[in-house]
Amino acid sequence: MKKIQAILTAVKKGCYFELLLKVSANLVPQWLILPGKTNIVAFEGSCIYLKRKVKNVVFRQASSEDLHELLSCSNYNPKTDNLKELFSSYFSNNHLCFCLEYNDEIVGYAWAFLNNYTITFDRYHRSNVLIRFQEHTVFLGDGFINSRYRLKGFFPVLLSGVVDNLHRDYQITKFLGHIDTSNDLSFKSHLRLGFSHISTLYYVNILWMNYISLVDFVHPGQNQKVFRRHKSASLKNKEADLEI
Q1: How would CATH label the architecture of 35-243?
Q2: Domain edges within the chain
């Protein structure tokens, strides 16, 4: 009954994409229709000011030798997750990983991608969007804080360390990221640390057809019409792509 009420509420408000999200989540299998909605955020600068500091935390760059600890931090389940293969490929492709250590244990990490980054809505199976961006820009993705250490100030320390390191060593001046619209806590945390909400990506995969719309925000709370719409027919695992 609650599921039906949520669907009717979305219809009354005219939120047709929200309706599609609710219908697909409750009534339609993902192999048939898979919608996704994620916010794109950006930070421009060289450092993030921390209002709260955490003692005895070590920030450093991770390497492939830390793979086991990174997986342990993320509560990795080899039966259902592909993180081991995914992170191994990230290291092989020279993507950058940064981590936080607390009491000699990795408690959080974040990946940094130069040139392009793939947003996925189904763990890199068939619903992928390749994001390309300009020079001196990096996309931060696949970040994680162990559940035991959330809401304790670790995330700001991690993000601050990543920004400082990439600006100093790689001359990065713009930092992009994406946050699923259902993760309101992470979205608000990014905004508090100085990130701005610049776009919202709407994605629908119907069988093997990808439909993408990117809505750009000119001013906070005010958005212009869809300025870029991409439609492509694709085979399984083929990526659609956008440029930011």
Answers
A1: 3-Layer(aba) Sandwich (3.40)
A2: 1-30, 35-243
Write the CA distances from 57 to 53, 54, 104, 158, 168, integer angstroms.
Answer: 9, 6, 9, 10, 20
Burial group, residue 100, by CB count within 10 angstroms (0-12, 13-18, 19+): buried
Give the list of residues 6+ apart from residue 122 with CB closer than 8 angstroms, or none.
30, 34, 205
Rounded Cα gap, residues 201 and 214, in angstroms: 5
**Three-class secondary structure of residue 149 per DSSP:** helix
Buried b (16+ CB within 10 A) or exposed e, 108-134: bbbbbbbeebebbbeebebbbbebebe
pLDDT value, residue 129: 80
Q: What is the pLDDT of residues 50-91, one digit of tens each?
A: 888 889 999 999 999 999 999 999 988 887 788 999 999 999
Q: pLDDT tens across 176-191, in order?
A: 999 988 899 999 999 9
Q: Which amino acid is at 51?
A: K
> Mean pLDDT score of the chain, rounded to an integer?
79
pTM equals 0.79
Is residue 114 within 8 A of residue 108, CB to CB? The reply is no
